[in-house]
Amino acid sequence: MYQINRFLAADAGGAPGAGANSAAEGAAAPGAGQAASGEAAAAAAGTKPETKPSLEELLKDPAFKAEYDKSAKTEADRLAKLSATEREAEEKKAFETEREQFRREQLETETTKQLALKGLPTDFAKHLTGKDAAETLANIGAFEKTYLAAVEKGVNDRLKGSSPKAGGTTAAAATGKSGFAQLVSEAQFKRN
């Protein structure tokens, strides 16, 4: 958004439509890099990346293009009315917001990698990502303990067999022979 605003502000007095094209080109480049890094993280985690339509694809829709052009013009008019210091403050605020979003995406990607290295499900990466790396690692550690304990409990529950029924043992159970084997054994005993 920061780059779009810069292009629109620079083109506010230029030819009609030139600002929208420049903004589309400026917005497409960062999105492509983010998509590539998202695909790499998803490939490392063994999941399919989310696919979002690009700006060029969205601009092919006439309704979206009209709305985009209208908002771009409105934003350019608003920025043109601001003083230099106000515009600089707006740009700085937009830059900080974008920087924080980028930092968060990087931290989430690293969380996904750490979960994959530990053999934990990567679907929980968004939920385990903290404010910084230390908090994220603490979250992963706590999740690992809890997750492994839950898996172990589930495995133990499945491995438990049914307890023996109350009552005495039969001769077949005492010797470890099935009913048919017991009958064969008795028949051989009678012959001898």
Please give a handful of descriptors for the protein shown.
mainly alpha, 192 residues, elongated, 0% strand
Instruction: Give the N-to-C terminal Cα separation.
Output: 97 Å
Tell me the structural class: mainly alpha
Rg from C-alpha positions? 33 Å
Topology, number of strands = 0
Amount of helix: over 70%
Mean pLDDT: 75
- Figure out the total of helices: 9
Pick out the low-confidence regions.
1-41
Largest sheet: none
Shape designation: elongated
Strand fraction equals under 5%
Q: What letter string, H or E per element, gives the SSE order?
A: HHHHHHHHH
Fold and architecture overview:
The protein is mainly α and 192 residues long. It is built from nine helices and no strands. It is elongated, with a radius of gyration of 33 Å. The model is unreliable at 1-41 (pLDDT under 50).
What is this structure, in a nutshell?
The protein is an all-alpha fold and 192 residues long. It has helices spanning 2-10, 18-45, 55-59, 62-81, 84-117, 125-128, 133-159, 171-175, 179-191. Mean pLDDT is 75; it is low at 1-41.
List the helices and strands and how they pair.
Blueprint lengths: L1 H9 L7 H28 L9 H5 L2 H20 L2 H34 L7 H4 L4 H27 L11 H5 L3 H13 L1
Helix pairs in contact: 1-2, 2-5, 5-7
